[in-house]
Design goal:
21 helices; about 575 residues
């Protein structure tokens, strides 16, 4: 038996049902734009295609604070009865009851044949997701070993280790390796997802690991700001300003970058801090909402930062164009499964393949809030560890560049391991998941780099380059093996990926689809202009289309004047 609850859990409250049906009638168009709970006004295929169909989501039980939600619709001219996503599905498939649910499951490829949904509160997983901490907790370097000792379960241990690794990835200056012939740094992106009160809130303990660094930067920034204001007062009071230089505004120094900022502010803070920083948000919706706003569209820069690609932005105040070279950004997000869907709408969204995912499963076990008996609170414990992290940070910051590498045997095992994983995932899920396993390879390499960098405090050798120990490589490999399964779980949760490319030119969707399909994997302006002519488009008219696709993550710009399809 397939339940409505299971379908709602895998279709973003049922919005995926609406979008799937609408795409059958209007391929190549943007059929729905979700902003919070509102999905806007859509074309109604049961009303001659008029834009009269309002779709939104609302709580099933409004009186309950934690009620599940469901997508509903209403035609502005009552061309069809008001109802929910299942009523809309009845109009399309002309089925009811279990037959309708089976049709939705089969057509949207939800894989609910066994009645299981990853986040359905009424179902039990056929195969629990793997944990890695039992295999690695005795192999970890400091401070990860002491962090693991604070855990309350294997899953909690996994989560704290991953959270600590992500925060530490932002605290290791002058350490890099070479991957596919390009220099890469330890920074990576992590999303930990679970239902409400599942325990993911403990990840905020990991934030303390870099707070000493953040506090020091804020203190320096405050002092420089006071000095700047003093000099400005002296400058304004001076009679002969021609002989004086205008005081230069000091940089905004900080380690943790607020996600709820405009694109310009985020880029400015990154630039002021030498291109380095971290985003730590306990609510994934914060980033999703800011990406959806007009002033916070830095999703493109976020994706570029994963690969340390240069980011450029303009400062309106000084009419100056600024380049952030090799940005080093780490990001840790937590949220519910539906918050993932708010941020990452489908598997081909460029953000999906750039995150490592970990799914906490809620256990119906009451954890006593009085079990912790130590005099030092866990917050103070992690803050103390953070003081040690700052010591390492200061030594590395003042020291030489360190190059990290795997041994030849480790490289061979790495290639074999990921070649097998790539083929297995491709055979099971198709080519849409390939980008994720390839980028998970890079994340695994970065985790091995972090583990190896932490060993510097053990031998005190801050002069030699870093070669990965076998125990650190095996730890990174064990973590990766678990992350592959967690990533696949999130992939199965995502809505059906739209094949058609979004274009505001809805009157000619097929032409623009042919134009996209005819483009090579990498190209420049001359190439896409020639392709436009070949399919019957004005080459000048597609400039804006190319820009839109870059903004939407369908294309990326590896360098000035060059474009590439996002795989």
């Amino acid at each position: 038996m397939i339940s409505k609850e299971a379908i709602l859990a895998k279709t973003h409250y049922g919005t995926g049902i609406y979008s799937h049906i609408l795409r059958q009638f209007y391929p190549g168009e943007t059929v729905m734009k979700i902003s919070g709970r509102d999905c806007g006004i859509c074309r109604n295929p049961f009303a001659d295609g008029n834009e009269t169909l309002h779709v939104w989501t609302e709580k099933i039980h409004p009186e309950q604070k934690l009620s599940d939600e469901i997508a509903r619709h209403k035609d502005q001219f009552d061309a069809i009865p008001e109802g929910d996503c299942f009523d809309f599905a009845k109009l399309y498939w002309k089925k009811d009851g279990q037959d309708l649910l089976i049709a939705i499951n089969e057509n949207l490829y939800l894989h609910l044949e066994d009645g299981y949904s990853p986040y359905d509160r009424n179902s039990v997983p056929v195969k629990p997701l793997p944990v890695f901490s039992p295999a690695v907790r005795d192999l970890l370097p400091a401070p990860l070993d002491t962090i693991a000792a604070q855990s309350t379960s294997d899953e909690d241990c996994d989560m704290l280790i991953l959270g600590a690794l992500c925060v530490l990835s932002s605290c290791l200056p002058h350490i890099s390796g070479v991957y596919h012939g390009r220099r890469v740094y330890p920074n990576f992106f992590l999303f930990v997802t679970a239902g409400a009160s599942a325990g993911k809130g403990r990840l905020t303990l990991c934030r303390h690991l870099a707070e000493a660094i953040d506090d020091d930067l804020h203190q320096r920034s405050d002092e420089e700001e006071k000095e700047y204001k003093k000099k400005m007062q002296e400058y304004k009071a001076a009679k002969n300003k021609a002989a004086l230089e205008i005081p230069e505004e000091p940089p905004m120094l900080m380690h943790y970058i607020p996600a709820n900022s405009s694109a310009t502010v985020v880029y400015q803070i990154l630039n002021d801090n030498g291109g380095s920083g971290m985003m730590f948000e306990s609510e994934g919706d914060t980033l999703a909402n800011i990406f959806a706003s007009d002033y916070g569209k830095y999703s493109d820069g976020f994706r570029k930062a994963f690969h340390h690609e240069n980011i450029s932005f303009a400062r309106r105040k000084d009419r100056e164009r600024v380049f952030i070279k090799e940005p080093k950004l780490s990001a840790l997000l937590t949220g519910t499964p539906n918050q993932i869907l708010n941020l990452i709408t489908d598997a081909e969204n460029g953000l999906f393949s750039r995150f490592a995912f970990y799914c906490l499963q809620t256990e119906l076990v009451w954890l006593s809030p009085f079990a912790y008996k130590e005099e030092v609170t866990q917050d103070d414990f992690f803050l103390e560890l953070g003081a040690g992290v700052k010591d390492l940070y200061d030594i590395l910051k003042a020291g030489k560049d360190h190059r990290f590498s795997l041994t030849e045997e480790q490289e061979q095992d790495f290639d074999s391991r990921f070649s097998d994983s790539q083929m297995a995932l491709y055979n099971q899920y198709g080519d849409a998941i390939v980008a994720s396993i390839r980028r998970l390879g890079l994340i695994t390499y970065r985790i091995a780099m972090i583990l190896s960098a932490l060993r510097l405090t053990e031998d005190g050798d801050f002069e030699s380059d870093i070669v990965c120990l076998d125990q650190d490589y095996q730890t990174a490999a064990a973590i990766c093996e678990a992350l592959v399964a967690h990533m696949a779980r999130v992939y199965k949760m995502l809505p059906e990926t739209p094949v058609a490319i979004k274009s505001k030119r809805s009157d000619k969707p097929k032409v623009y689809q042919r134009f996209y399909d005819a483009l090579p994997d990498t190209f420049d302006r001359k190439t896409y202009s020639d392709v436009a002519v070949s399919v019957g488009l004005n080459p000048r008219s597609v400039d804006r289309t190319i820009k839109e696709w870059c903004d939407e993550g369908r294309l990326e710009k590896p360098m000035h004047g060059q474009y590439a399809k996002v795989k």
